[in-house]
Design goal:
heterotetramer, A: Rossmann fold, four-stranded antiparallel β-sheet, 6 helices, 13 strands, globular, B: alpha/beta, eight-stranded parallel β-sheet, 30% helix, binds flavin-adenine dinucleotide, binds flavin mononucleotide, binds FE2/S2 (inorganic) cluster
């Protein structure tokens, strides 16, 4: 563990040295982090975390991965107490990530809060593949919007919306995005693909926009997890399926799904 | 509607550990240590195996499965089941609660998709079998035929013939299940008993008398975790099974009682995560242990227990766990 | 041989607290809050009482007992019992395990030495009664006569008529106990059920059908703590009852099931130490709660829960716990 | 909590301000200490601790009590983490203490390890009552012998014995004490009472000496406790009694018992 520092009031940034994960991880994949015991409190289940950034090895500098997480409960509280330099047991990269359809020239990426980390890998890929990406960064307050610097570094255009000024409101945001991409200029036409990570409403917004523009939508979903590998069957995706057939598992069939409207 | 991508699953090769794997065992010198245990006609080289539902062939990419005594599959039911609504699991202090609900593709689905991956491991596959009525078990075992090295009957399932109380809490129903299964297989039968029973001794004896080769004590304990903030049930199914460290003192007593009640081996299952836990169970009469919840945070947990048992014997200069415990007790 | 000094006991007057007692409740203004609950013909002014064995008249010197709904005595047996060998209790993470073994001087001894001290409190005395056979309960209740405001039948006792399984795990035995007690008293009967039963619904229904006025769910969970170093049982009796926070998720489910199975009130008992715990139980259907283990470290715990419930109602501007929960659920 | 400091490697000294307890506590009584939650670990049962010293209020200085405890398990580890200045919830003084028989002129006090705290109150009383007391301080090593300074302050003569030099060995110690008190000079004659606290063997030694000299013995016993008040019945004294009659409770009938040979 190379860096472990607060990001604003609610988040923490974690940089891990790992050549293997950095070089093999796909955009949108995640890790299972085993949380070390913290002052008598033993955390039993590993915590799933999206890979926010992959920074390949350069010369003598080893490859690193960066995560950003919110301190919300017992597990993330205990994780927040791990000192820099400690070895962390991590399993991954896991799951199916985002995948640009062949021929993609432009993409709309949408994330909110720590969900921005789920889709940041797609921004990295866009930069690497020369895809023109626009990323919506949503948050409660401006100081809770993550990913600004990352997008600047990657040369990805951003649209920031917050609850504070009402711009993150679903209808407002939908109208704004339609206005943005319903134009005629090449950079104002509909994106070739929409990639989203975050709360159910954002996924629904993406599905609506996808239907409106007739473009595919890929959505990263969340679920409580135990194994992260596909065998515990704990991470059923929050979708309706035939009750006699098991639905998709977020860890093995996702977290990224080709989606129209995920029924939460 | 979600269009799920085609039938791909997790690619094992992608899994990697940051942390170094535990050091392999030093086997140079010392006396011969024999940890083997017999379950009916089956001999396991070490008395450590995973708990049903807490292992999958995916782990083959992470851990040396061959160092375990056996693998144990997730419970297979006669008909296909979808499993329970989300959330299916959560963590509470010292335990986890799951209401996965045992999704299953039935015996044919299991044999087609999962069994080949189990069979590829160099250790016996114990197939866990479930049912909603005592009559449902034998057909599943018959359909699985010679594929199971042994069968573990998960009787912690509501008995739809008897207004939903667990089959395993009723000695008569246990007898019925085991007797029927005995008719369709020569392979060892393990009966995995629930915690919430009036008398674990009566249940274990019913299994033994009907022809079981071992009992597994016990399954997770039904519980109802509430969200601290909203006071609503966390699990989609409202109720789930509590497992992990907090159930160990309860299961220790059950193992102690069961192993005094029957001659067949008792396999302990409940909160095992370390060699110490395993030795605690051996000291109250268990012949083998299963590792469940501990594997999620530490996929190596079961292997560590197996290696640790051998190392303890080597360190003490004894050849078996019994001798190790006698030595401990003598001190 | 120890020569014990004459029959003196702890002198209450010597007890004192460093910590200030919680502030008394601000009762000025606000709507009338009615927390009362009926157990048969008995009305308790607040739905909070101690758990049997976790209260004694000695506490009168430390806490305002009159703010509780009732007192509950330690279980009284028909004949004198000495209790179990040492150690009789220990603490494990998130729980304690006790094997006190219920020493008892019988009904006459109870009436002579303890009851007068209970009667001095300004709240009803619920007398807990135990037995080793279904037939043993009624004579004890008859001998206690009009002294109990209500009787709580502790059926978590091995049934010596039925090779030692708990009376309370057998609906037929519960029916037998309650029917016999019903014949000798008009006072409310509460049946306190064990955790390790095949169906808590069946047990609760048996109590209701035989004439009980309430069920208490549940008792401590049998467990077997081992000394981590020596691997020997810590308790002189090997087995004891696990109580405290770690049993709450298990008991929550039982309370939920029991309160869906019967019309009579369900009194929840298991890991209650705070208003939040109490509200969790109320939200799954309990009508009252008992506070056990929490009182040892915080003798004020039960009073805090009672005051806290009232304060929550006052703060929310509602008149009852039901309304409070409805308000919470609506948010 | 006024002072909370290590005493050697294994012990901690705790000084609490409490006028009430200081003024009412009898020698040999104890407190139940509620251990505050420590970094996520909640301790459910209060811990019984002997009152080592009572220092009455003088002028503006409030009365204090002093405890010394060994850090042995979860409870005492959590207690050791409580900072000076914190308020501790304490119930007491509890139990029946040591009581000098009328006319006592000399006393032999015996303690080992933290058991010395159990009998120190009797040394305080001896000093106050003008009783000639001799106190045996036993320990594993010289640096683990408690109470040296206290006895000096109280003017109580001490005999130190340790495992290190073999002097604490039961037979050696018995012989030494007989030699010490079988003499003719007034200060060499048998004590009028023996008071002991500590492991079972010390209590047996005291009983043997008591029988030899024909003087009463008072022994302070230990038991696991929950309530400390006499109602939970958890603290049965480790003595054999009629199985149908409950034996004495350490918290309410003890911890100090008139004893000949406590059968452990
Ligand atoms: C694929 C995936 C990627 C994720 N990436 C990130 C990320 O980059 N940054 C980030 O801050 N968070 C991320 N999360 C959410 C993160 O896993 C949870 O916030 C975390 O597990 C909460 O643990 P806790 O013990 O602090 O909370 P508690 O609420 O105390 O946890 C109780 C239990 O519920 C589970 N749980 C609670 N909330 C969630 C949740 N939102 N998702 C999954 N399980 C949950 C916990 O794992 C635990 O088992 C991701 C989740 C998934 C499934
Ligand atoms: C009347 C009395 C006076 C005491 N005075 C002192 C003193 O002055 N200084 C001192 O260091 N110790 C004293 N003790 C012992 C002290 O109470 C224990 O060391 C302490 O309870 C250990 O708690 P733990 O959680 O650290 O140990 P753990 O072993 O983790 O405790 C587990 C459980 O066993 C109980 N337990 C373990 N050992 C003992 C013991 N020896 N006596 C009673 N209960 C025990 C604990 O209270 C707890 O319930 C006294 C005990 C009694 C009964
Ligand atoms: C996620 C999960 C799934 C489980 N699935 C099954 C199952 O399919 N069949 C079964 O008999 N037990 C199942 N169990 C119970 C375990 O096999 C085991 O009995 C229980 O977890 C107690 O052991 P532990 O404390 O080591 O986890 C499951 C447990 C968990 C946590
Ligand atoms: C020390 C102790 C003594 C107990 N004695 C009795 C008893 O005599 N009769 C009884 O019905 N329950 C007895 N119980 C069980 C409690 O009444 C209660 O059911 C159990 O402790 C669970 O509640 P809790 O988690 O709040 O402690 C006792 C519990 C403890 C800890
Ligand atoms: S987390 Fe175990 S199957 Fe997905
Ligand atoms: S500690 Fe409760 S009776 Fe002594």
């Amino acid at each position: 563990m190379l860096v472990h520092e607060p990001v604003g009031e609610r988040y923490r940034r974690l940089v891990l040295a790992s050549g293997t994960i950095t070089s093999t991880a796909q955009a949108g994949q995640f890790l299972m982090i085993t949380v070390p015991p913290h002052a008598g409190d033993r955390i039993l289940l590993p915590r799933p975390m999206a890979i926010h950034r992959r920074r390949p090895a350069t010369g003598a500098t080893p490859g690193t991965i960066e995560l950003i997480y919110g301190v919300v409960g017992r597990g993330t509280r205990a994780l927040a107490a791990v000192p820099v330099g400690a070895r962390l047991q991590v399993t991954g990269p896991l799951g199916r990530g985002f995948d640009y359809p062949v021929g993609t020239r432009s993409a709309l990426l949408i994330g909110r809060g720590v969900g921005i980390c789920g889709v940041m890998g797609a921004a990295e890929d866009a930069a690497a593949l020369g895809i023109r990406a626009t990323m919506v960064l949503s948050g409660q307050r401006p100081d809770q919007v993550l990913g600004r610097a990352d997008c600047a570094e990657l040369g990805v255009r951003t649209i920031e919306v917050t609850d504070d000024d009402g711009s993150s409101d679903l209808a407002t945001l939908a109208a704004m995005l339609r206005a943005e991409f319903d134009g005629a200029a090449p950079e104002r036409t509909a994106p070739d693909v929409i990639m989203v990570c975050g709360a159910g409403v954002l996924a629904r917004l993406a599905a609506e926009l996808g239907a409106h523009w007739g473009v595919p939508v890929q959505a990263s979903l969340e679920a409580h997890m135990a194994c992260g590998l596909g065998y515990c069957h704990g991470c059923a995706a929050p979708v309706r399926t035939d009750p006699s057939i098991e639905g998709p598992l977020v860890c093995a069939d996702g977290p990224v799904f080709d989606a129209n409207i995920p029924v939460v | 509607m979600v269009a799920v991508r085609a039938d791909t699953t997790f690619s094992d090769a992608r899994a990697a550990f940051f942390a170094a794997a535990p050091d392999p065992l030093d086997l140079t010198g010392g006396p011969a240590v024999d940890l083997s245990v017999r379950i009916g006609s089956l001999t396991l080289l070490t008395p450590v195996m995973p708990a049903s539902g807490c292992f999958g062939p995916e782990l083959g990419a992470l851990i040396p499965v061959a160092e375990l005594g056996a693998t144990v599959t997730k419970t297979v039911f006669g008909s296909a089941r979808g499993g329970n609504p989300v959330h299916r699991l959560t963590e509470i202090p010292a335990g986890m609660v799951n209401s996965v609900g045992i999704p299953s593709r039935g015996p044919a689905g299991y044999l087609a998709t999962l069994h080949p991956r189990y069979a590829a491991f160099d250790v016996p596959t114990i197939i866990s079998v479930g049912g909603h009525r005592p009559s449902e078990y034998a057909p599943v075992v018959a359909a699985l035929g010679e594929n199971g090295a042994a069968f573990e009957l998960n009787v912690s399932c509501p008995n739809l013939d008897r207004n939903g109380t667990d089959i395993g809490s009723d000695p008569a129903a246990i007898r019925e299940v085991v007797a029927a299964v005995r008719l369709v297989t020569d392979r060892p039968i393990i009966v995995k008993l629930p915690v919430l029973v009036a008398s674990i001794a009566d249940c274990a004896r019913a299994a033994e008398e009907a022809g079981a080769d071992a009992v597994c004590v016990a399954n997770s304990i039904p519980a109802m975790p509430l969200d601290a903030r909203t006071r609503r049930p966390i699990l989609g199914n409202v109720i789930g099974g509590l497992s992990g460290p907090s159930i160990k003192p309860i299961v220790l007593r059950l193992v102690w009682l069961a192993s005094r009640a029957v001659q067949i081996p008792v396999i302990a299952c409940g909160g095992v995560g370390s060699v110490e836990d395993a030795l605690d169970y051996f000291s109250v009469g268990a012949s083998a242990v299963q590792v469940g919840t501990a594997s999620f945070a530490r996929p190596f947990a079961a292997v560590e227990v197996a290696r640790g048992l051998r190392q303890r014997c080597l360190d003490a200069g004894v050849g078996s766990i019994r001798e190790l415990l006698e030595l401990d007790a003598a001190q």
